[in-house]
């Protein structure tokens, strides 16, 4: 029989109240980001709700109620005497599009996106199975924005330099494959930067691939192609030793057959080729993941998206937090012999693996 610790109970109750407030604040921060309110207020001094609404071209009554949540959430400062509001520069540095990779507001969008499938996930708790990609409203859109600020912003400065000499090879002309390309923002950017190289993107989602093709057409990028493809049999169907450079950006852990995909990547890679793999930096050990700065967030994303979309394909359901140890195990089983783990200072959620045969 456990002994009841009253102080422990009171502290936990207090933490639950904090959680309730923080969860609510996440939704309102998401609205502030999507509506452009943070970007608008970052350019203003103390202003009334009417002035803020007019500048943002939004309805004042809704803006005023949103400001209430921002003030009580200690995000925005309030001058009661003048009835005016201010977004401090120190807060804007983590809430606006100008903040780039530091913009935490982008991530708050996942809360609302995942909330839409809560009922369906509950059914999975009861009956097993999973939810397919097309059940997730706006997920690819939010994921593209997330990737845009964490990957695109540092593609040339931090990511490509992880592989010595890679930029020179891309300039000279090589063949690259991006597996699980999503909406294609990364590969379209690379294709525009390196017109003498050829780029191929593959993804299970027809919706995502359609967006990728549309962006390529709009930007006039012609050295790229996108293919809708189920990669469950990639270990057998992948072209042999065709690509000089292959990438995956947070794409392996939610595959139905992740080992088959990795074997296919190994098969497709030329003998002297490079595979660059971005994946979540969990350890796979709860006692260690407790110390991860966004561990709870990542396990939530895993439970309500990464794991379930894999299970929907009758897959392994590894989940986002499968960990570096298991990642290296799978890479070795796929046929790779050289695996180097890298971390980027601006990216608290991922490891970057430089992998060779």
The gist of it:
With 357 residues, this protein is of the alpha/beta class.
Tell me about this structure.
- By secondary structure, the chain is of the alpha/beta class.
- It has two domains: 98 residues, Arc Repressor Mutant, subunit A (Orthogonal Bundle); 246 residues, Rossmann fold, CATH 3.40.50.150.
- It contains 17 helices and nine strands.
- A seven-stranded mixed beta sheet has the order 5-4-3-6-7-9-8, sandwiched between helices.
- The longest helix is centred in the first third of the chain and has 30 residues.
- The radius of gyration is 22 Å and the shape is globular.
- The N and C termini lie far apart (55 Å).
- This is Class I SAM-dependent methyltransferase.
Shape: globular
Q: Summarize the helix and strand pattern as letters.
A: HHHHEEHHHHHHEHEHEHEHEHHHEE
- Which value, in Å, is the CA radius of gyration? 22 Å
CATH architecture of the largest domain: 3-Layer(aba) Sandwich
CATH superfamily of the largest domain: Vaccinia Virus protein VP39
What proportion of the residues form beta strands (DSSP E)? 5-15%
Helix content class = 40-55%
The CATH class label of the largest domain is: Alpha Beta
Number of domains: 2
- Return the CATH topology of the largest domain: Rossmann fold
The helix-and-strand class reads alpha/beta
Biggest sheet: strand arrangement = 5-4-3-6-7-9-8
Number of helices: 17
- What distance lies between the first and last C-alpha atoms, to the nearest angstrom? 55 Å
Overall pLDDT score:
94
* Largest sheet features: 7 strands, mixed
Strand elements, count: 9
Protein name: Class I SAM-dependent methyltransferase
Organism: Negadavirga shengliensis
Keywords: Methyltransferase, Transferase
GO molecular function, one term: methyltransferase activity
């Amino acid at each position: 029989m456990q002994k009841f610790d009253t102080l422990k109970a009171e502290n936990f109750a207090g933490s639950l109240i904090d959680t309730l407030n923080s969860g609510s604040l996440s939704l309102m921060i998401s609205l502030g980001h999507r509506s452009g309110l943070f970007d608008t207020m970052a350019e203003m001094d103390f202003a009334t709700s009417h002035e803020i609404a007019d500048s943002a071209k939004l309805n004042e009554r809704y803006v005023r109620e949103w400001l209430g949540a921002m003030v009580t959430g200690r995000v925005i400062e309030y001058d009661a005497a003048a009835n005016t509001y201010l977004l401090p520069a120190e807060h804007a540095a983590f809430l606006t599009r100008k903040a780039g990779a530091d913009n935490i507001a982008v991530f708050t969008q996942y809360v609302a996106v995942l909330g839409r499938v809560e009922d369906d996930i509950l059914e999975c708790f009861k009956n097993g199975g999973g939810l397919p990609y097309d059940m997730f409203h706006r997920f690819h859109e939010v994921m593209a924005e997330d990737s845009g600020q964490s990957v695109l912003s540092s593609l040339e400065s931090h990511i490509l330099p992880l592989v010595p000499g890679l930029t020179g090879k891309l300039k000279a002309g090589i063949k690259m494959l991006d597996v699980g390309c999503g909406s294609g923002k990364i590969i379209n950017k690379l294709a525009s930067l390196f017109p003498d190289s050829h780029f191929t993107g593959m993804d299970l989602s027809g919706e995502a691939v359609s967006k990728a093709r549309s962006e390529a057409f709009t930007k006039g990028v012609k050295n790229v192609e996108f293919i809708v493809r189920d990669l469950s049999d990639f270990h057998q169907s992948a072209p042999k030793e065709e690509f000089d450079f292959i990438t995956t950006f947070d794409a392996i852990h939610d595959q139905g057959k992740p080992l088959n995909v990795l074997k296919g990547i190994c098969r497709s890679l030329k003998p002297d080729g490079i595979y660059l793999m971005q994946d979540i930096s969990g350890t796979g050990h709860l006692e260690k993941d407790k110390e991860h700065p966004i561990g709870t967030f990542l396990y939530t994303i895993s439970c309500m998206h990464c794991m379930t979309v894999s299970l929907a394909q009758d897959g392994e359901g590894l989940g986002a937090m499968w960990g570096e140890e298991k990642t290296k195990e799978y890479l070795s089983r796929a046929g790779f012999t050289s695996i180097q783990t890298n971390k980027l200072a601006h990216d608290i959620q991922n490891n970057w693996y430089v992998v060779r045969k």
